[in-house]
TrEMBL record:
Pfam families: Chorismate_synt. It comes from Granulicella cerasi. HAMAP family: Chorismate_synth. InterPro entries: Chorismate_synth (IPR000453), Chorismate_synth_AroC_sf (IPR035904), Chorismate_synthase_CS (IPR020541). This is Chorismate synthase. The lineage of its organism: Bacteria, Pseudomonadati, Acidobacteriota, Terriglobia, Terriglobales.
Amino acid sequence: MLRFSTAGESHGEALVALVSGLPAGVPVDQEYLSRELWRRQQGYGRGGRMRIEKDAAHILSGVRHGKTIGSPVAMTLANNDWKNWEEILPVSEGDAEKHKAVASPRPGHADLPGALKYDFKDARYILERASARESAARVACGALAQMLLRELGIEVASHVIRVGTEELGRDASFEEIRTIRERETVLLACVDPEAEARMKSQVDQALRTGDTVGGVFEVVVHGLPPGVGTHVNWDERLDGLLAQALMSLQAVKAVELGRGVTAASTPGSQVHDAIAYAEEGSGDGFTRFTRERNNAGGIEGGISNGQDLVVRGYLKPISTLRRPLPSVSFDTREETKAAYERSDVCVVPAAGVAGEAMVALTVARLVIDKFGGDSLRELKRNFDSYKDQIRNF
Ligand SMILES: Cc1cc2nc3c(=O)[nH]c(=O)nc-3n(C[C@H](O)[C@H](O)[C@H](O)COP(=O)(O)O)c2cc1C
Ligand SMILES: C=C(O[C@@H]1CC(C(=O)O)=C[C@@H](OP(=O)(O)O)[C@H]1O)C(=O)O
């Protein structure tokens, strides 16, 4: 079973990422890994921290001569900002000035519930781990999952479809979305330059007014055969697993599969994707069944149906505001302003990259569950044999 976990605090020495369950023989492309990490750091509206960090994953185990060997892959990602904190973080709470306590919790961040739960009067102990710095480690894990999926012809890409109140307003083809990955500079990762300019103006307004924005990213998986995930148990359904995977990302507050949101208010005849049967050589790429549209987002009954998987993550606006909202001091219990040091103002493109990682890890896990194999060769053989089986169903 493919599993991954992360450790590390935002301003600690390093992040740690651990992936187990990858078959042996998967080519590990360091350049691809670095590029995914770079992509997660991009986007208009990111704060000062991204000028400090230059993320890179150092592989400690599980890879020899450029390929996985079946053992867990352990990676570390250094925090450059650690050098600015290494003398502050060890200072005890007693020395409040030097300790840089966060003692007025930010509405929307994990500060207040975390401090209550873990019994701290300093939310720094909470924010260090709640921080989306952790998503860098997820992207390192996700890059490995993508390296496996690419060997099977399965691709994952994301783009931004909304920032604040500005949206793309049309469907994008997978070919268009794929080109976002290749961009040398990333503004808001939108396929349409005009919509991107409108999105930028939303960020500019937030920057001007000391506010923040949220938005929506879309992750698309191309080349996934029908039959991945299952309807038979609630916790093995592809839709449920994808929702959990994306919802677990910092600031994601809703997940949509296909046209899930508008479908709720649209008649069935306009929602469901009618089925036809094509001549040999055509069809959805896996079978001879075809659909003219993909409102289901590639999943029916918790099972992939051979169409592109389309999953959207809805982000709330960033909670740390330059013009802070009212809060209450842990020390005096009097009204004060929420803490502010520095912050991102918009993170939708970065969250999209983290979303790709989470989707890739979820899909790779189910692919490994279904097709098995301790080596990539064995997995591929099983995968190809299944594709033969369904081709002429
Ligand atoms: C890539 C990324 C960067 C983020 N940067 C910030 C930030 O600079 N400031 C902030 O307050 N929240 C930021 N967040 C969101 C917080 O991490 C998140 O709101 C917080 O941990 C509370 O979790 P919740 O929003 O999921 O409830 C970021 C999220 C992502 C995905
Ligand atoms: C460090 C990253 O994002 C951070 C996520 C984050 C938060 O509260 O989630 C707060 C900010 O951290 P800092 O207070 O150090 O500027 C972001 O920069 C990153 O994405 O690598």
